[in-house]
């Protein structure tokens, strides 16, 4: 009987110690996640003509209506038609960040073969020239790769 009682007390002590350890570990984990948090203070839109519109996310409200996006924040009200928006991303800077694949922008050689990609980097195939790509692709903004250079193609 004494042996059962000792075993029961020892088990209860182990459970209590384990719960304290788990609570302490959990508190430290939440402190770490707070200190590693990144603040994305801007929503950056890239328009189909390549311009950037940067909005602070402080009190940002967005609505979509009749093919347009209306964004309202502490700086004002901005309206863009959805066809104008090539991309939008949250960023730590007002300039946003572009993928490395489209940092080197150049003019295409109209007669040479070109590989076309979506803005997400998905290959759409190789076309005999830029005009053939433009005629084959639906309306939108694309990235072309030709002779080691990249360029943006807007199909309207």
Outline of this structure?
The protein is an alpha+beta fold.
Report strand %. 35-45%
Characterize the largest beta sheet: strand count, sense, and whether it forms a barrel: 4 strands, antiparallel
Q: Report, as a whole number of angstroms, the end-to-end distance.
A: 87 Å
Helix percent band: 25-40%
Features:
single chain; 156 residues; alpha+beta; SH3 type barrels; 3 domains; four-stranded antiparallel β-sheet; three-stranded antiparallel β-sheet; 2 helices
What does the model show?
The protein is α+β, with helices and mostly antiparallel strands and 156 residues long. Residues 30-34 and 98-105 have low confidence and may be disordered. A four-stranded antiparallel sheet has the order 8-7-9-10, with helices on one face. A three-stranded antiparallel sheet has the order 2-1-6, with no helix packed on it. A three-stranded antiparallel sheet has the order 3-4-5, with no helix packed on it. The longest helix is centred in the N-terminal third of the chain and has 34 residues, at 2-35. It folds into three domains: 1-37; 42-91, SH3 type barrels, CATH 2.30.30; 100-155, no CATH class. The protein has helices at residues 2-35, 130-136; strands spanning 42-47, 52-56, 61-65, 68-73, 76-81, 85-91, 114-117, 123-127, 140-146, 149-155. A hairpin with a 2-residue loop joins strand 9 and strand 10. It is 26% helix and 37% strand. The protein is elongated, with a radius of gyration of 27 Å.
